[in-house]
Structures are given as C-alpha cells and as structure tokens.
Amino acid sequence: MAEKQDNFIKKLEQLQQRYEEIDSLISSQEIASDATKLVPLTKEQGKLRQIVTKYREYKAIRAGVADAQSIIDDSSGDSEYKDLAYDEIKELHKKEESVLDQIKNTLVFSDDAVIDSVIVEIRPGTGGDEAALFASDLYGMYTRYAEKKRWKVELLEFQGSEMGGLKECIFNVKGPGVWSALGYEGGGHRVQRVPETESQGRIHTSAATVAVLPEPEEVDVDINPADVLEHVSCAGGPGGQNVNKVASAIKLDHVPTGITVSMRDENSQHKNRAKAWRILRTRVYDYYQAKIRAERDSVRKTMIGSGDRSQRIRTYNFPQNRVTDHRINVSLYSLDKFIMGDIDEMIAALQDHDKKQRLENL
Asked: Which three-class secondary structure state does DSSP give residue 274?
C-alpha cells in the first residue's frame, strides 16, 4: 500500500514538472507566435492545472504535518504546545486524505472532463423492423437525457424506416460532462419485447449498435485535404424536385484509412459538405485514437467499455421492466423510466466501476 502511495506521489511530481515545463514553453516567443504549437500546449496545461493546484495544496499540508511533528519531537518543548500540535496533525491528516481523493478523481477523469462534444451514431442490428424501432427508441432516450442535462443536440443525419423506426441516425451532443456520461454507451444494445406486429404475443430479441465518438477540434486531428476524395451527386429519395435536380449530396473518402462519409440530409451542398467533414474528422480521430488505446491496453487492463460496436453491453427486457448492463452486472428494474431518459443511476454505477479500475492502473 505504501509503495502504491509512493508511486502515486512520484506521478504527481512528474505532472507538476510537466506543468512548469509548459509554463516555460508558452512564455517563449517561438511558441507564443505559433498557434499550432501554442493551442495544444495551452490545452494540456489546462488539463493539468487542477491536479497541480491540488498537489501543491497537498504538499503544503504535508509541510504543516512536519512542522507540527517537530514540535512534538522537541524534548524541551512546552506540553501545551505539544497538545495543540497533536490536534493539528489530526486535522491535517483528514485534509490530506480529502485532498488526495480529490486529486485521484481529477486525475483519472481529467481527459474525459475536457471533452464537451460527442458524435453519436445509432444503427439497427438484427431484428428487421423491430430493430429499427428499437434504434429509434434509443435515439429518443439519449435526446431526452441530453435535454435533462441541458446539453445541445444537433441532428446531423437521419434516415427513417417505413414503420417509424430508423435506418441510421447521427447526431451531435454538446455540453459540460457529455463524454464523461455518454462515453459508456458505445456498443451493442439488445431488446427483448413483444413487437406491435406480433399477433401471438411472442417475445422477440432485436439489437442496435451505438457508437459514441469524441468530436475533435480541428487542431486535434490533421487531415490533409489531398488525402480526401470528394464526390458530389444528386440526393435520392423523397424531397421534391430540388432533391433530384440539384447536386447537393456529398461523399468523402479518406484514402489512408478507407473511412467513407456520405451526407445527403440537407438540400444545400455547402451544409452537407460541412457536416460530412465534421463526421469524417471525428471518425479519423477515433481511428487513430483506437490504435493508441490498443497499444496502451496491451500492457495494462482495458478500461470499461471500449466503445466497440460488436461488444454487447446492455439488455432491455420489457416484460420484466429490467435493464441490465453486462459490463458491471448491474440490473435496474425501472426500464420504463430508463427508456424515457432517466439513465443517471446506471451511468453513475459505470463511472464508479471505471474509477476503481483506473485507480488500480495508475
């Protein structure tokens, strides 16, 4: 235990040194005049600031403990002063524990906390029309949850199905803490219920996939325009004469990764292009981040929920009014409320489990 604590303090000392190093770098003329270097360094320092501030507070407490201990150890000291020193040490140890807990919380979630914009993609899996309806239910669940959190939702792409479900839905959610909460939702979602079209009351199992990707700023991901092939065409489907005659649909192909984005949601070619580039940047960023995560996770435990769409993460059992998260083996018997966007309890359980794993891996 003592060895873990020593390693943790060493880690904090390294972070403080890095913070001071960045402070020196951004004050130099060379960095200050180059936005491509200044912005990443400023963001990195911003993430470290709260940790370093708390660590300095911790060191001040430790210095106070040492001063009080020196009074106690002084054989010629006054007994009344020694009694006061004992009381002070008790109080300082309480503060020390509290500050260390705050540092740990900040440290393990510091990267997550600064991401305030995500792109969510929902698609039906196996189950035909029922899967499309379930995908639509998930979209409604997340948008209601976002509304409760007062996050901003922007619909980027929506393809409905004939029975009122959806074939594909891509939307942006923006607000404080959005990645810390929704980052756990990526994966396979399974539903068990009696479809409206089922005449004999049999329970069917259907599925949908959800991907939640942090939306990077343009400085976070460098895409060479020469690596992107753009195709312009007329948007198909319903929408009147403009849809058929005006070349407004955009398709982007990122050659190095093979990632393709198609956007035909707007009648405006300019708007479709802007949306397509946002989604492309997000997917390319996630592609390279996934490689980094794979290398990192090969030498330590995998954090909860990779966001892999092939991983089944949750089952929604309507006959039992139960929702179960398989990653943490937690079931809530309030599916009716859950599907209406009341998902805080499950997210809190996921965050708590994730925190414990991350602290073990520090």
From this structure: helix
Of the CATH numbers 3.90.25.10, 3.40.50.1970, 3.30.70.1660, 1.20.1050.10, which one belongs to the domain with range 117-219+301-361? 3.30.70.1660
Q: pTM, whole model, 2 decimals?
A: 0.74
CA dist 159 and 225 (Å) reads 28
Tens digit of each residue's pLDDT (9 = 90 or more) over 141-196: 999 999 999 999 999 999 988 888 999 999 999 999 999 999 999 999 999 999 87
- The count of other CB atoms within 10 Å of the CB of residue 46 is 12
Return the residue matching tokens 């690596």: 227
Domain boundaries, the chain: 2-113, 117-219+301-361, 225-295
Task: Return all residues near 152 (Cβ < 8 A) that are at least 6 apart.
Answer: 146, 173, 174, 175
State the Cα–Cα distance between residues 362 and 358, nearest whole angstrom.
Answer: 6
* Whether the Cβ atoms of residue 225 and residue 256 lie closer than 8 Å to each other: no
Q: How far apart are CA 114 and CA 177, in angstroms?
A: 8
Q: Rounded distance, CA 123 to CA 167, Å? A: 6
Backbone angles phi, psi at 189, to 5 degrees: -115, 130
How far is it, in rounded angstroms, from Cα 279 to Cα 216?
A: 10
Tokens of 9: 């303090």
Please write the tens of the pLDDT for every residue from 51-60: 999 999 999 9
Q: Which run of H or of E encompasses 273?
A: helix 269-297
Residues sharing a CB contact under 8 Å with residue 202, sequence separation 6 or more, in sequence order: 194
| CATH architecture for residues 225-295 | 2-Layer Sandwich (3.30)
Q: What is the DSSP track for 21-88?
A: HHHHHHTSHHHHT-HHHHHHHHHHHHHHHHHHHHHHHHHHHHHHHHHHHHHHH-TTS-HHHHHHHHHH
